[in-house]
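Now for today's protein.

===
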Amino acid sequence: MATQATAQRRLSFLQIAITLQTLTIFLQAVSAGLLLASSYGETLHSVGARVMYGASMLYVLAAVLAWKPGGGSPRPIWHASGFLVLASVQVVLGIADVPSVHLPLGVLMFGLSVLALARR
């Protein structure tokens, strides 16, 4: 019984991590719009990128913690790691100022994050 409660706690930590990641990606879209419309948009987008990257790392940590004790499927770890790779590419593209790939990748990331959230 205690193991089941622990698994539920870890599962909820995974849900929180995915929700946080989805929210930060959405806020990046909002700050991208502000980037075009205001003087402080660049600062918000830059700070948001760091927060989004941190949320992606938290997702990996949560996936590992949810998998390790129960010995379940490592699939969530692969999903979370894939997201971290996408987030890394997104950061590089943003710094390199390649909006033709940066923007569609952001949309893809948001869609995949919503899908991951819906699957939990």
Notes: The first helix runs from residue 2 to 37. The radius of gyration is 16 Å. The chain has a mean pLDDT of 90. Residues 96 and 102 are 9 Å apart (CA to CA).
